[in-house]
Amino acid sequence: MEFIRLDEPGVAKARNAGFEAASGEWIALLDDDAVARPGWVAAAINCVARCDAQTAILAGRVIPYWPDDAGSLEMPPSRLGPRARLLLSVVDEHGFRDTTDHPIGVGANMLFRRCVLAEQGGFDIAAGRVGSNLASGEEAQMMTDLIGAGYRCWYSDAFVVDHKVHAGRLTRAWLTERARKEGEVELRSLKTPGQKTTRAIKMLIATPMLAVLQMRDRPEHEYYLRLNHNLGLLRKLFAPAG
């Protein structure tokens, strides 16, 4: 086992250093608060063996490990909708299937074909999390780019990690800011000024309706988080330079 130390912080930078130093056909992403279950390696290898050459992404199951007092927190797990759970890196679906048309997966448990990452120039360091900044989306952007290039994405529930969810994340404030940072990451993933303008117009049109709908919705559910996603993108787009 080899440990690589970087002098500059950044999740995407660390992932790039790892895949550049690796020699295998596939690389795996795990977070520092994710623990692979027994048999993870064998299950991942078995799933990889079932993938064809056009499959470049294989996402695994991520089971949340909630705080002991989660039921008494501001946003208990029982109240979380699908979008909130995804923002908390929960991917708890069953089966082994092609998800290219509707990709799922988070960096707490994903495999990428190494040569394809090299073709793309690695993960975008501008999209990765640095320190306490909640903007995190380099793996999602890579998924989008690879699918756009004609590669396939699969999901399997056979290789599983337990992902620790800290109590500080089960709050309205954390989910709000995480949704807004997700919007910022989406803006950065748009390649041209025209794409950014088109997306901003669509969000400006949708935002008033979402603002009305979220008034009847709990803050951990769909409309509230979609609204704040839009607000995050627009906030970043119209923020003063510098």
Protein described:
- The chain is of the alpha+beta class and 242 residues long.
- It folds into 2 domains: 11-169, Spore Coat Polysaccharide Biosynthesis Protein SpsA, Chain A, CATH 3.90.550.10; 172-237, no CATH class.
- The protein contains 8 helices and 6 strands.
- The longest helix is centred in the last third of the chain and has 22 residues, at 193-214.
- The radius of gyration is 18 Å and the shape is globular.
Number of domains: 2
**Helix residue percentage:** 40-55%
Tally of individual helices: 8
- What does the oligomeric state look like here? single chain
Number of strands: 6
Mean pLDDT over the residues:
88
The CATH superfamily label of the largest domain reads Spore Coat Polysaccharide Biosynthesis Protein SpsA, Chain A
CATH topology of the largest domain: Spore Coat Polysaccharide Biosynthesis Protein SpsA, Chain A
Class by alpha and beta content: alpha+beta
* C-alpha geometry: globular
Along the chain, the helix and strand elements come as HEEHEHEEHHEHHH
- Do you know the CATH architecture of the largest domain? Alpha-Beta Complex
- What's the CATH class label of the largest domain? Alpha Beta
What characterizes the major β-sheet?
A: 6 strands, mixed
